[in-house]
Amino acid sequence: xxxxxxxxxxxxxxxxxxxxxxxxxxxxxxxxxxxxxxxxxxxxxxxxxxxxxxxxxxxxxxxxxxxxxxxxxxxxxxxxxxxxxxxxxxxxxxxxxxxxxxxxxxxxxxxxxxxxxxxxxxxxxxxxxxxxxxxxxxxxxxxxxxxxxxxxxxxxxxxxxxxxxxxxxxxxxxxxxxxxxxxxxxxxxxxxxxxxxxxxxxxxxxxxxxxxxxxxxxxxxxxxxxxxxxxxxxxxxxxxxxxxxx
Length: 246
What we know:
By secondary structure, the protein is of the alpha/beta class. It has 10 helices and 8 strands.
């Protein structure tokens, strides 16, 4: 499938490249073609992106996150609840997580850490990882040539060297073809994402003062969004209850 450029002018990609090229000169692109399952897609994703995944797992950001989960009661309980609640609601996508871990030859616990990152970091003491201010932003404009959608991608400096583009297609239509920008080790949907139905979306991180230590992780809610074929279906998938960050 192709990125739906007939629908959008992706100034987004230019802004992403601006962020990335502050520390690198190219953006890797990985294609998973004809995957037999989401586990298989994740496994091949993990194999191709293994160097980036291992690099991010050795960063200060993930070390602080690992310390929070492994050495504090709050972090340990939050990790367990978030993982259990998310697995119960999205079992197929947890197989993608397991596949990424196996392909990259890393502990699946660490890939879960990365995929629960936003919820867990929001429970950490102020200043432990991020500065608490907003990060990504979007702007949209209409013109005679169509709709323009701009998005800046600006998470931590730790992850910038370890992002890449990845696409999945399935062998027999088991899941919708999907592609987008990935932070190393994360399932698709966490950053700019598009699917074979012409749906494209971005997301902006917010840090509410109070958030729950359980519920459905945003990465997985957004991953489910990639299966939508209409705008109404996409909205319904985003309105799922029990999201820790609101």
